[in-house]
Amino acid sequence: MSLEFVEYPAKAKHQATIIWLHGLGDSGDGFLPVAPQLSLPDDLGVRFVFPHAPVQPVTINGGMEMRSWYDIKSMDLDKRADETGVRESAAQVEALISHEIEKGIPADKIILAGFSQGGVVSLHLAPRLEQKLAGVMALSTYMCVPEKLTAEAKHTDLTVFMAHGSQDQVVPYGAGRHAFDILSAHNMDVSWQEYPMGHQVCGEELAAIRQWLIARLS
């Protein structure tokens, strides 16, 4: 089943795509307002795609059904990301990327972005893709099965933008730094930004994202 999504169309000829994955309990609509806020130059021809995660029961929330990229059975970081669920969602997102490539958008003009759970899927998928993407944006997030990255990665020269709140009570700051250290140890081009905030995105962060996106897609 293909993922449903909302989109923010390119202002000029479509030349690049940003696929942005939301966090637990949110939907693609949650990040849709960010697209106009970033006010990327029209001539970059950027189309934003905001997929909706499937609705499924989430163990830590008493089995309540909500949009989720994978089940969370425990808040312990080494067990938090359900590997099977992450891989299933990654395969669905990969289908979206393939669709963009079929439409004529080259992989080096595609950015995969994700917040929290969405960032876990993005960091998992991008190094394992056949094609090398223009970059990955991992916001307030952590890694699933980092110990398997060495064996499974097809690209270790990815460019990654990471940002995290120093007061994040949902995904601890240390979890983000651990992901940064793992990616850096694989010689990826990883930049780290931190902000005095909780589990959210702030204006200063959006300004940094804008600069990074323009650099990656120009």
TrEMBL record:
Top-level division of the source organism's lineage: Bacteria
State any single GO MF term: hydrolase activity
Protein family according to the UniProt entry: Belongs to the AB hydrolase superfamily. AB hydrolase 2 family.
Ranked from the top, the taxonomy reads: Bacteria, Pseudomonadati, Pseudomonadota, Gammaproteobacteria, Alteromonadales
| Keyword tags | Hydrolase
The protein here is known as Dienelactone hydrolase family protein
Q: Which Pfam families match?
A: Abhydrolase_2
Give residue ranges for domain Phospholipase/carboxylesterase/thioesterase.
Answer: 10-213
